[in-house]
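Intended use. Records like the one below are meant for learning the mapping from a protein sequence to its folded structure. Do not use them to infer anything beyond what is encoded.
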Amino acid sequence: MFNYKEFMGHKLKIAGWIALGGLAGALTTVSVQTVARSNMAPLPLEELQQLAAVFSMVKSDYVEPVDEKKLISDAITGMVASLDPHSQYYDKKTFKEFREGTTGRFVGVGIEITQEEGLVKIVSPIEGSPAFRAGMKSGDLITKIDDTAVKGLSLNEAVKRMRGEPGTKVLLTIYRKDENRTFPISIIREEIKTQSVKGKLMEPGFGWIRLSQFQERSVDDFTKKLEEIYKQEPKMRGLVLDLRNDPGGLLDAAVAVSAIFLPDNVVVVSTNGQLAESKFVYKASPEFCQRRSNNDPIRRLHESTRGLYKQVKLVVLVNEGSASASEIVSGALQDHKRATIMGGQTFGKGSVQTVRQLTADTALKITTARYYTPSGRSIQAKGIVPDVMVDESEDGNLFAALRLREADLDKHIASGQGKEEKDAAREKAREEAIKKLEETNASKKNEAPKPLPEFGSAEDFPLRQALNKLQGKTVLVSKTMTERKAEGKSDEPKAP
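Structure written out for the chain above:
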């Protein structure tokens, strides 16, 4: 029987991690310590008694014996999933996978996902992964995993089915909304060793550095790569920071990357939520981005490069797959007028998740705050609007209106800075895009997808435009993309 007094008297010492890239399978978390609040409001006793009664009836009356632990776990999963797309209950297996993710290693297909209308939706494929090589795209819907329909599966169950042993095969059935077609993709699982940083000298005086995820080792790898580029070109005139399809990750890594390019001690990002500890301002200084007191890679970088990266001309590339931590960086650099932001309007994940450990092997990831750019903008459900909009290819983004964003996710939280309003122009563009798809793509139903050119290659159209911007040449701006309307004004409080 449910014991209310025992429940109320039970105080858990819990550990929490701040998670920005909080989509399923995201590589997240900054470790912080917290303790459960003793001044918790009284629980609804009548409703809890009802819950206990239902549990008892299911246990005694259901046609077959039920697993009590699984029943409770599923109830918790459903309760948390009802909040928003990013809150999640981690059972023993998924919590282990979550913790493994912070190291940048796991076995699977290599995608960042969320759930929408009972299906698995791809936020972005992890660069270099089997899914990436197979041509999977942001916004793709997974309808079947092998012979199992995704409809009806929880996100955790879907993740379990896609993960497995290295070398084993999984067949994913994909529905691509912006091409109105369904097709199968066979993928061999492998250990995903995500190298989050790539970079090179594109031509004399101009470099390119790409950050695909904000992981534990990202800042060290990022500064080392910048040092390598500097050794090749000490007289660097311009740099492209590529955050396309970067789904987010560690908060301190986002603050650290921003601090590399910003003046000392300026505001990078602030957070605001119900708890006192969720109201915080992060600045471009070591105490906000240093994980180990004896290691300061940013100082080492500036000493070895004579402070070049504090002043080098900077362009940041983003797109619809740029979310959370990558939006923090681009928003901070934009607000401080340190960089020109180019590409597509970002995903719009402006919420913070805290992972609280419940037992030794279970945890709760729950949305605890919104984050705000230095000027006080909430980008939740809107995203960062580029200074210059650039298409994915020279032919344009014909179906840009159908791209996935935070505002499209079921149960997403609002920005907190006004009521969300339907953008009539965007809705019309969507209708037109769908009509065009129906007219032109019937013949492509069973064709394998054609992947976009590799980021950083000679065929990378947005990168070419970014370099043109740095060099003072003509930039081919987007033929199709328009800004999503800002949300209306509100008297609600902004960032602290």
